[in-house]
Amino acid sequence: MAAPTEQVVGCVEEAAAEEKPRILEPGAAPFGNFPHYSRFHSPEERLRLLPPELLRQLFPRSSETRPILGLDVGCNSGDLSVALYKHFLSQRDGETCSDATGELCFLCCDIDPVLVERAKKECPFPDALTFITLDFMNQKSQKVLLNSFLNQFGRSVFDIGFCMSVTMWIHLNHGDHGLWEFLAHLSSLCHYLLVEPQPWKCYRAAARRVRKLGLNDFDHFHSLAIRGDMASQIVRILTQDHGMELVCCFGNTNWDRSLLLFRTKQTTETQPIPESLIEEWKRKEEVTNLETVRWESIDTNKEVVKRFHAES
Ligand SMILES: C[S@@+](CC[C@H](N)C(=O)[O-])C[C@H]1O[C@@H](n2cnc3c(N)ncnc32)[C@H](O)[C@@H]1O
Fold it and tell me: What ligand 1 atom has the least distance to the C-alpha of 182?
């Protein structure tokens, strides 16, 4: 394991790789399929930024009981999926809601079958979390597998998607167009989308690591035109090209990754954002370093997105 100081300033992917990457190709984790990823980028570090009641407030229960459907893309061995599930069922005091059974159902997918098998075996909530092996970039199997899950609930889209520390791996392996398409699919599949993009320094670290291992560079690394401030780039693609709107930036993790919540403009037109969340996010804005929350403030989000576009 890397020295703690190096982990704090460096990139978690690099730290994870130093702990014996799992083998798909000798010595590599070419998709970010690290076997113990959560040891380096802990679920708690992300959860502490997210209000536990977030989903209950975004999707208030109506008289018809229908579960909130979540899609976790790039779930690895499921540690974060399970932690998100527990977190969103809990109250502020950490207690689990008593009437929570059946409230949330997640479909969690990963390209690495070994990680998915581990996730299935270790999942404490097998009725609520379904793990499948899926290369999300394979459109055909993506459509079949996701639809078969959604059909069970008579639905055609997910309420919320989670895309946590995955965008870089899609980008490195599929190039600019691949990243653009990936975000297009996600935005068409989910009303809300929570994204944790890896910053550009992680791209350099990943490229350095494959070089150190004597492996070929990522096909696309040198030709990527989408680069630099990756959080801003992802905001730009989702809001300008894919009809989403930035709702909130929940701040940054210790690893310098922002947690960004988007929703489709269609959702914006039909569902107002709950007042309580607006208040919560205003409060957060007051206590958070403004430098790290350039796009925060839900009630002025249109203005903020406009400003963001003007700056980028
Ligand atoms: C760095 S890990 C992040 C794991 C987890 N989301 C988290 O934040 O703790 C990235 C995950 O994305 C998965 N992944 C990469 N490309 C993928 C693809 N095309 N389809 C599905 N999963 C993919 C990798 O196998 C890996 O488990």
Answer: 19
